[in-house]
Amino acid sequence: MTYQEPQRRRRYQPSKRVFYTLWVVGLVLVLAIASGWSDVVLNPWARSLTGDPLLTGTWKGDLPVAGGGQHAMMLRLGRVPWKGGGRCSNCATIEGTARVCAPDKPPDGYAISGRIRNWSGTEFRLDAAANKRQPGTYTDLGRLDGEWDGRNTIRLRTEPYVIVVNPDGSTTLSSDMQPPDPEVTIELRRAEGDDSQTPQCP
What pTM does this model have? Predict the structure, then answer.
């Protein structure tokens, strides 16, 4: 009786084609993230390959003020560039500028930052930080809770308050000039063809 040595199973080794395919897929993913293509999936409100409306861009409307009047308002929104690193739950995802234009007064400028509250961008929150102001009376925007219809209209809910900038640069609240209804809704429409980074008063 002859002894036969058992055959050893050959260890599976991926072919060069598999390695090449994985390398190509990885390269495509890296390029997609670096070029912003990932925004099409992760942030459809900021980027579209099919020409769908975006939340980013320039918006124009009117801010209701005390006394029943309105001041023209322009808002420019943009996507905060991804800078790499870990995930930040409190970092801004949207930023921009705003201007409120009152008659016979210099434009009142704001720096805008905020966060998108859902995947589609139809709900968001913005904080408006006023730029340096000349002495005078201003309607401050404060925090704005926003809704976007997914097309050409956004609505901002806020509780604006009137402040007085004194000659020495200090500010005081003007209690007798506050709006009777603390919360107002600002409706803004998309400004077609206006790509200016800093919206201008009419």
Answer: 0.73
SS3 100: strand
Q: In whole angstroms, what is the distance from residue 76 CA to residue 61 CA? A: 12
Q: Parallel, antiparallel, or unpaired: how do β-strands 108-116 and 70-79 relate?
A: unpaired
Instruction: Give, in order, the Cα–Cα distances in Å from 49 to each of 36, 40, 52, 56, 95.
Output: 11, 7, 8, 14, 22
* C-alpha span between 83 and 70 (Å, rounded): 39
CB atoms under 10 Å from CB of 72, counted, come to: 17
**Does residue 138 contact residue 165 with C-beta atoms inside 8 Å?**
yes
**Residue that is written with structure tokens 């219809």 in the block:** 149
pLDDT in tens, 112-149: 999 999 999 999 999 998 888 888 877 788 899 999 99
Task: List the chain residues with pLDDT less than 50.
Answer: 35
